[in-house]
Amino acid sequence: MNTLKRFAGVLWLMAGPLAIYYLVKTAAAEINKKPVIDTKIQWSVFVIVFIPIAIGIMIFGYYAIKGEYGHLPKNSAEIAD
Amino acid sequence: MNQPTNEIQGIRRIIAASSVGTLIEWYDFYIFGSLAPVIASQFFPRTNPTAALLSTLATFAAGFIVRPFGALVFGRLGDLIGRKYTFLLTLIIMGSATFAIGLVPGYETIGFAAPIIVLILRLLQGLALGGEYGGAATYVAEHAPPKRRGFFTSWIQTTATLGLFLSLGIILITRHSLDEDRIKSIAKFNDWGWRIPFLVSIILVIISVYIRLKMKESPLYAKLKTEGKTSINPLKESFAHRSNLKMVLLALFGATMGQGVVWYTGQFYAQAFIENICKVDFEQSRTILIWAILFATPFFVVFGSLSDKIGRKWIMIVGMLLAIITYRPLFGKLFSIADEKNKVEIVNKKEINTSLKPVASTGNSLRFVGIKHLFDDGMLMTETKTDTVYALAGKTTIKPDVKLSKLLPAKEYWMMVAIVFIMIIYVTLVYGPIAAFLVEMFPTKIRYTSMSLPYHIGNGIFGGLTPFIALLLTTIYTGDKLVGLYYPIIVAGVCFLIGLLYLRNKIDPDVND
């Protein structure tokens, strides 16, 4: 199970850049197609909000590959560096 | 013998006090959304591009961007100074902002100051909402007995849905009680009556503040404070420490992200789909949702309670899986119920009414053509075409404005209620256990901060954007009426896989750490 969790981490790590690419590409196309203020704001909001989330899923993937989720903390004492 | 009874009475009081406040905050938040078209006409005239820009910002910024910031600001405060005073503060901010929106003069009276004030007040609403939920969930969970944490926190989960129910109910009642004549009543509501639901909020908030003032601090937090063990820097401890950050990311990508889209698809996109894609009448589309919510709400408590017995994970996972598999057939059925192509028109009952309204000093007139189609199953479809009759011979409107509104007969109406009810059952599956699940993931000293951020990114951003993105997809890919569902299906699909693989089904017996 832990091996599967690590391998799946690659998927989550790749999902981030893929999502950013698709988002920016669609935003550019939609703004070009209809260059009004509403479209610009809508797509700018999507890009600004979802890019940090895409980075978040990359970090999640990285942790998964590193085996961080092989063991989840059993008590709060474990959640401390 | 008396101790358990007193304990149960005590926790009931705590749940009631926490839930009433949270319900009012949701009510305040929803009335703005439910009255968006009326508010737009009062404060954000579409003819003015800057006002239109502020309108879009008010919709997006407050609902989606600000909520996670509210989670950070008030989450930090809740871990630094305590749960009680923080969620008292969020309630006061929310209530004051809502009441103030009801008092702001319109664009015609004070010009640009109006949309700017409304935007600021809406931002305050979003911030307050971002801080409220984590506080209420944490407060109740920290009082609840370990084996009934899911049951007790699920009452907090009902508030978001009941807040929507209350806002829709008060809006519909106000809309119809301002004049004996229905049309005049709606006109009065659109003119000034829309302010009533905002102003009513202050009474509810005063009662709730009074109740909350009488509450005591969470015993777990009070103990930490006495021992001097509270966090000095909750933000750093929550997000800069790998051991906690990995749990925040797991909570977001393995639970709240999917829960958020399932919630907003069932309760908000379903209503938008029924109104905008199926073209069902304004009020029917709302009362369908009201009935479905009314029947489904008890299931929040049912599944919250069940999660105390079988664990939180599988209930949420099943909810996401059912949503992924059945969204397309369920929405397809909603569409076919109202689709006139599946019905036979009674042609001799067709009515056409035409009227002209002169446009001042141009010589042109606006022409309204109302066509009423009656179908064999009793559905009445009203088609309203509006175009301009020009004084200049030969000049015609290139594309007349056409609006459709369908009034469903009883059988079809209740079929839609049943379908939306099923979708809200999915909401209760994913949302009922989520508070207990999040509370158990994080330590007391940084619990408010750590659980609030994934909750509000999952619900505010992934969930809150669902109706916009789904409707936007239908305008990009016009061939498929159900194309908007790919957004919640893909997000819930990714969350389902992550949750299935990485989440643990353990119920934490001790959140006292």
Description:
The complex is a heterodimer of chains A (81) and B (513). With 81 residues, chain A is mainly alpha-helical. Chain A has one domain. In chain A, 75% of the residues lie in helices and 0% in strands. Chain A contains two helices and no strands. The longest helix of chain A is centred in the first third of the chain and has 32 residues. The radius of gyration of chain A is 18 Å and the shape is elongated. The two termini of chain A are 26 Å apart. The mean pLDDT of chain A is 89. Chain B has 513 residues and is an alpha+beta fold. Chain B has three domains: 230 residues, MFS general substrate transporter like domains (Growth Hormone, Chain: A); 194 residues, MFS general substrate transporter like domains (Growth Hormone, Chain: A, Up-down Bundle); 61 residues. In chain B, 72% of the residues lie in helices and 7% in strands. Chain B has 20 helices and four strands. Chain B has a four-stranded antiparallel beta sheet with strand order 1-2-3-4, with no helix packed on it. In chain B, a hairpin with a 6-residue loop joins strand 1 and strand 2. In chain B, helix 3 runs antiparallel to helix 4, helix 6 packs across helix 18 and helix 15 packs antiparallel against helix 20. Chain B is globular. Chains A and B meet through helix 1 and helix 2 of A and helix 3, helix 12, helix 19 and helix 20 of B.
Q: What portion of the residues of chain A fall into strands of 2 or more residues?
A: under 5%
Question: Main sheet of chain B?
Answer: 4 strands, antiparallel
CATH architecture of the largest domain in chain B: Up-down Bundle
- Under CATH at level 1, the class of the largest domain in chain B stands as Mainly Alpha
- End-to-end separation of chain A: 26 Å
Largest interface: A-B, 33 and 38 residues
Q: Shape of chain B, please? A: globular
Helix- and strand-based class of chain A? mainly alpha
CATH superfamily assignment of the largest domain in chain B? MFS general substrate transporter like domains
The poorly predicted ranges of chain A are none
* Largest sheet, spatial ordering of strands of chain B: 1-2-3-4
Multimeric status of the protein: heterodimer
Biggest beta sheet attributes of chain A: none
Supply the number of helical segments of chain A.
Answer: 2
- What's the CATH topology name of the largest domain in chain B? Growth Hormone, Chain: A
